[in-house]
Amino acid sequence: MTSFTEHEQNIFVSFYLQMPESNKRLVLVAVICVTTLLLLLMYCKTMGSFSLASQQMVIKPKRSTFPRQLPPSPSCECMNHSVLLKDVLPKEQREAIMQRRTKEFQQHKARTSSVLSKLLYALPNSPLQYPIQGYTVRPLTPTLIPVLELHAGKRDSYKRAARLAQVSPAAEGGLGTFSSGQLPSSQPRCSKHHEGSAAGAQPPKKQAKTEQQLATETARLHRELEEVFLNVSKGILTTVTPDAQVTVNGAGTRGLSIESSSLVLLNELLAKVSYTSSTYHINSGDLAFFRFESHEALFPIVIKQPQVPVLYDMGTDIRSQVTIITKTFLRYPQLKVLLASIRKFYPDITVIIADDSFEPEHISGENIQQYIMPPAQGWFAGRNLAVSQVITKYLLWVDDDFFFTENTKIEEFVEVMEAVPELDVVGGSVEGNQFYFSILYEEGDGVEGGCLIRKSGGKFHPLPDLPKCYFTHGVVNFFLARTDAVRRVGFDPQLQRVAHSEFFMDGLGSLMVATCQDVKIGHQRKTAENTNPRYAKFRTPTKSDDGFKSQLHYFKNHLKCFLYS
């Protein structure tokens, strides 16, 4: 701004004092007006900048919508040097095998998939309160839906709609369709005559509605139905008889709407809404659709038959807690060394032996159970037989050529399992080697199948408060396991000669596995006295065995390729 010198200011004051009084007043008014205009201009400029900045900062939120479904899984990529399993199929049978595998995989997905795997989104700033997890009902049994409540500001009327949505192609498209015969008829309204009308005058005749008017009213009714009437396919909704100030529609059907002028009464009725599944299934689910005005929510309902627990009495000693099991074939010298070492440290613990030797040799001893199998039934068949006879909570698997040492402390295994109840298997160390591994698995698409890599030495983080034990996916042939968990996965008897990782592959996602370095066992050395040439013939896998295993992985495990690294 321009500033005046002291001399210029003195001249202006002298000139002003010599002016007539009328002119002085005009000058004063002019100065005030100019000053006011300048202040107004400065204010408008400032507010204009603020308004522009505000407009730039405010972003109108977009209305969220519930996703219909997750994108399908893409095809997985096989790593270099992977075995491409389709290539090992016999050419003349390839197409037939692929068709059978596709059919079996579709049935597997039907058994294992659920509506509860649908992706749910929580929309922001909702006045709806509802359960987001843990609401479980028994099949065909009415069960209250907990914590249903509406938190809304005061208004003339509250409307709420609850929906149990069928997750199927027919139901995912919306709330269902209604024919004109399903639309509720409009309630007649009382018309108040004009005060100036003649007494007894007839009301005017209602004119026939045009086709356009009927279409408009039908669309309006559809919109109203969408707000308050909802369809379900897996259950029904019920509630108690409402208060006079509450209107309930659809009680005992697949949809329910509640309207009231009292928020308190509406919430009292919401607290008494029950869900009942319509069909019997021991493990299924449903989705509840909950809406108030423009606010929407989805929450899961688990339909599950409670299971009767199967518990094991741990007793007071190791014999009542653990059974040692092994499988033997043509290796009686090694088996006798193993049994002698067991009796040195655990004199009365039960030992179960599955024996498929050609000429079985009777093994005697207290608390030793020998089960004779048909000859050469194989590795996993013998494991299944031994596991089937265990009556203790835990089983300890050992190979028939191992031997116990002072570091083979079964009690430490039991302590780990009891400290971490989620564990199913805990492995130890054989001659200082733990041989644990992780399994990297991608499901892939539904056509080609998944990709699997077994990575030696792969492990995760330590167990809680057990720094020498780590979570992993698979362990060595020396492990303690929960008997019921092993039975749940089982050993595929088709694998006769060489098989171990396959048990943990079948149990991936089902078995919680850990490895601990402090519990150790010995491995017997081969000598001329304990070597059986006939055993080596059956022990060494042939090329056809490898091909069979690859075909088994292709079909049974729905794999595209696998790699052992």
From TrEMBL:
Pfam family, one: Glycos_transf_2
SUPFAM superfamilies in the record: Nucleotide-diphospho-sugar transferases
Keywords from the UniProt entry: Disulfide bond, Glycosyltransferase, Golgi apparatus, Membrane, Signal-anchor, Transferase, Transmembrane, Transmembrane helix
A cellular-component GO term for this protein: Golgi membrane
Record keyword Transit peptide present: no
Protein's membrane topology: Single-pass type II membrane protein
The keyword RNA-binding is assigned to this record: no
Listed InterPro entries: Glyco_trans_2-like, GM2_synthase, Nucleotide-diphossugar_trans
Superkingdom classification of source: Eukaryota
Start-end of Polar residues biased regions: 177-189
Compartment annotation: Golgi apparatus membrane
Gene3D superfamilies the record matches: Spore Coat Polysaccharide Biosynthesis Protein SpsA, Chain A (3.90.550.10)
UniProt record similarity statement: Belongs to the glycosyltransferase 2 family.
This protein's name: Beta-1,4 N-acetylgalactosaminyltransferase
Source organism per UniProt: Salarias fasciatus
